[in-house]
Amino acid sequence: MNTENSHYTENTELHADVLVIGFGKGGKAVAAAMGQRGKSVVLVEQSARMYGGTCPNVGCVPTKALVHHANQRRPQDSPQDWYARSVGEVQALTSLFRAGNFDGLNGMETVTVLTGRARFEDPHTVSVGAGAERLTVRGDTILINTGSVPVVPDVPGLAGSRYLLTSTDLIETTTLPPRLAVIGGGYLGLELAAVYRRFGSEVTVLETAPDILRHEDEDVATAVRTILLDEGVTLATGVRVLEVTDGPDRASLVYEQNGTKQTVEVDAILAAAGRRPATSELNLEAAGVAVTERGAVKVDTYLRTSRPHIFALGDVNGGPQFTYISLDDSRIVLDQLTGEGGRSTDDRAAVPHTLFITPPLATVGMTEREARAAGLRVKIASQPVAEIIAMPRAYVVEETRGMMKFVLDAETDEILGAALLSTDSQELINTVALAMRHGITATELRTTVYTHPSSTEAFNDVLGAIVRSDP
Ligand SMILES: Cc1cc2nc3c(=O)[nH]c(=O)nc-3n(C[C@H](O)[C@H](O)[C@H](O)COP(=O)(O)OP(=O)(O)OC[C@H]3O[C@@H](n4cnc5c(N)ncnc54)[C@H](O)[C@@H]3O)c2cc1C
Questions:
Q1: Is the distance from the beta carbon of residue 21 to the nearest atom of ligand 1 less than 6 Å?
Q2: 27 Cα nearest atom in ligand 1
Q3: I need a labelling partner for 281 at 20 to 30 A (CA). Which of 32, 43, 414, 420 fits?
Q4: Which residue's CA lies nearest to atom 12 of ligand 1?
Q5: Does ligand 1 have an atom closer than 6 angstroms to the CB of 217?
Q6: Which residues contact 297 (CB under 8 A, 6 or more apart)?
Q7: In which band, very low, low, confident or very high, does the pLDDT at 11 lie, cut at 50, 70 and 90?
Q8: What is the pLDDT of residues 79-96, one digit of tens each?
Q9: What is the value of pTM for the model shown?
Q10: Which of 121, 148, 323 should be mutated for ligand 1, with most atoms under 8 A from CB?
Q11: DSSP per residue over 362-401, as a string?
């Protein structure tokens, strides 16, 4: 079969060796691999706008493309015109990726992509679509890969506000909000706050915690805070958002900070308070698939659910919400289906993360605080980017803000962790993570040969810049 099957007839039943629910990263990778092995695969995606899943359509790709476009704006470019043009270009890119994702899978002889919402009927069967446009699919092996959905915080007036936007709404609107409130100072909130500020919006981030990036060391969080404040982002931390009231052309958002009530008037409110696993529409009870207290599909370290023939990959299983984790989930599932079955989530070590502000913050491993809490004797190597003599690239690309910090084991010279707030850090961190996974010492990372002028050669300097060392 090789058709999009947009017109089903009632009572049609398909059979698949592998049935994938949701066109996420992990599911599509398994679908393609199993299809290549000659297995019949049916992949069900609820929306024709989401072939390829969140990342290429409304997640990583468009947001990082917007970072790029926002950084290209010159002072003489009109914010609204530049922004609308940028959104247009980004949408053209996502359309291209969407079509590529669809064709890549549906073009395979063995794979069928169905467009419709899937819902379990029993442990081996899902129904797709509704009413007359409904069919059922039986799968021997089933993968749940339905991702996550935004959480709207429980604030009076917020859910019903016409100024409320999810990240998807925000990045697709072609009107630049002159004033934007971002509820939630986590990764998503800070990235979009920074990017919309660069496009020209007045941005206020409202965060309940006493500070942003509380899991990072204080010096790193301070460096990020300084950059965001320099950019003109308003950071309101330790706040409680009390209510939202819609006016004819703006929303009033009332919040409490240090016991004082404050009001901010905005044209748009972004809900960036996290995303929850997308399980509520799946009728998992019919399949006998258990969920956790937080609504994620419960899985073991091999990503098997409470039904051994059903796996869950990506955001829906409650793991870290990153595309590369969903991809790694696919390696585990493929190992179960076609390999030796030994690979598990326990094998993951030194998984890096990047916060794509400008410059980006990329981290891996332990913070200084965590290393000390673990009772380790540590050495801290750290330098502001502007002072790293071995890294002229920062001056070449005119981005000298930020810092690099390494947490090292004072006894073994092992790299315990790193926080790199610098240009290119989203690339640098992968080298550090690889070094950590393979036991490459701090001295080896410091004294090796790197190209010039590159950002990596900063390691030649920074790893020797010991600022603190436990006796
Ligand atoms: C704005 C934003 C920026 C992000 N930036 C980054 C980043 O820079 N780097 C990074 O690694 N991660 C980033 N993420 C997170 C990343 O996008 C997700 O972790 C990742 O896409 C999750 O993939 P997944 O495999 O779980 O499924 P998804 O890619 O979310 O796909 C799930 C699919 O299932 C479909 N679906 C849901 N229910 C059903 C149903 N019942 N029937 C049929 N289909 C269904 C959905 O329509 C969707 O297409 C970002 C996320 C957002 C929202």
A1: yes
A2: 25
A3: 32
A4: 322
A5: no
A6: 144, 277, 279, 284, 289, 290, 291, 305, 312, 316, 317, 318
A7: low
A8: 999 999 999 999 999 999
A9: 0.96
A10: 323
A11: EEEE--HHHHHHTT--EEEEEEEGGG-TT-THHHHTT---
